[in-house]
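Ticket #4471: structure output looks truncated?

Reporter: J.K.
Steps to reproduce: submitted the chain below (663 residues) through the standard prediction queue, then opened the result file.
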Amino acid sequence: MSYSNADPTGRLITPALVDLHLAPSDKAEALRALAQRLVAEGRVTDLEGFLADIAAREAQAPTGLGDGIGIPHCRSAHVTRPSLAFGHSAKGVDFGAPDGRPADLIFMITAPDGADDAHLQILAALARRLMEPEFTGALRSADSPAAVVALVDDKEKPQATTVSGPVVASPVAAADRGLRLVAVTSCPTGIAHTYMAAKSLERAAARAGAQIQVETQGAAGSTPLDPAMIAAADAVIFAHDVEVRDRERFAGKPLVDVGVKAGVNRADELVAQAARLAEPAGAAAPALAQNSGPRSEHWASRLRKYLMTGVSYMIPFVAAGGLLIALGFAIGGYEIASAPSVVGGFDWTSQASWAAMLFQAGKAAFGFLVPVLSGYIAYAIADRAALAAGVVGGAISVAVGAGFLGGIVSGLAAGFLVLWMVKWKVPQAIKGIMPVVVIPLLSVAAVGFLMLVLLGSPIASAMTAVTDWLNGLSGTNAILLGILLGAMMAFDMGGPLNKVAYTFAAGALTTAGSAPDAGSLKVMAAVMAAGMTPPLGLALATVLRRKLFTTEERENGKAAWVLGASFITEGAIPFAAADPLRVIPASIVGSMTAGGLSMAFGSTLRAPHGGIWVLPLIGGPLPYVVAVAAGMVVTAGLVILFKGIQPRVPAVSAPREKELVNA
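Returned output as attached by the reporter:
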């Protein structure tokens, strides 16, 4: 591609900006050496200021791509025009690549804050070419700066500079077979990772036999995806580090949502994950009728996604609020719940003041649990337009005593109501105020009526009945509940059943308010014990019988100790994915053991998270440790037994990959 038309005063790269014998001692020296070439060519006006901008970008996230490529880049007020400096280092420079390989090809990509679109499109096209092995291979073989410039300039092989992915004439009719995907990529600076992720996803989709259209929301501008293509898509991939613009366009579609570097480095995995998410909608069907249009996702799959979105946004409030309340109790005793507000009366030297502050901050966080749960269930259904009604419905649920069950109902009601409202055909004069005035006004009023007048009181009565039931559990009934919750925690290791069990426990704990009852405290303890067991049991198995596990599994076992001890059940997923038919049953039995014993011992827990780190906050800590240890030993023993008596079973299925880490 020639740059003379876009920039008659100079090209993106010149021989003076190429160093084929770069020999720095570290990354900082490499950055300085390339920056000095830009200064010498008049493309950077202030060396130290520019290096500070580059360093700030490096601090956000490593710029090593893997396969020996580093792309330090930034937009800076000290840059006069978009430029590329290139260095080839025989020794290699560590740019933090995910594969750990030092970068021997280093591309310093720069652009001024106010660069014009023509220049930025050139940079975007170059970034996409960096994902082509034949291009980087030719650069490694280049024997002169002029040869590097010729490769980048590439007059003999024009490159498309489109920023919206491969062009498809008719989104619905272009392919009547196979998986259809759409994607959005974006990064903070918008001049490198955005376009590399797009190229990587396109190549991965081609390898998988899928069709994909990528919208790059980068510095070179963005061509929005055709609405018909979105409607026809089986799943959506977001690879982004900044918020996706106009996200509501994709509401209701199965979504893979990751950072932009995952789009660059794990594109095949993301396409495979999107294919799995699309399966309930029939994406795996061998053939589709011509012009068949979008396929329907099963209602149960959509419902699970809506609920999981709400839970994922709620859990940080649960963890922070629960731990703060527990710490407040630990420092100041249970009477701290009735302490006066510390606002305007905080004593820096008083232990009671510190305890009251922790308790009151945690209680404030708990106040957001149900509104956040409800709001983001609604958000998952109808995007931003439904957020207000969902949050208000959740707040009303708290006020009337309907708790997290009321929050689920209000979130679903708000989401589906707004989803219906956004389809209204209204006069052009009021169309502009629909999302900011009309829809929030009508939806909040409708959800308020629903929760205050119709459903709030019946749901509150049901929640009271659940609380009374928990308080009345004893003996065999309590043990059976612990066994059931244990099985749910281990079955999918962070998936929907795991989250249902966790949300049940945390919801019972938080609904009880400032003075949780004994039943809810026991349930929370049993759930955490069961959630800790699978990774701890598998870690123990890798120590007891190393030969039964691969080298990679043994390494995963080391991490599983820490993850399990921290109540992160997902630490067992690598083992379950590799050998599900033996690992999952063993984990379920172990977690059932831990949950049942915890309930039998009557252990209690005020903090809804933390693992061994909140052991001082557990009622009956010694029996509790015994329960977890027993579950761990059962899991390890069964895994060793199963692996010893049967040939290794290939992974035919695995728990759905986690979207969050909590239990």
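Triage note (M.O.): checked the attachment and the full token line is present. The first strand starts at residue 18 and ends at 19.
Status: closed, working as intended.
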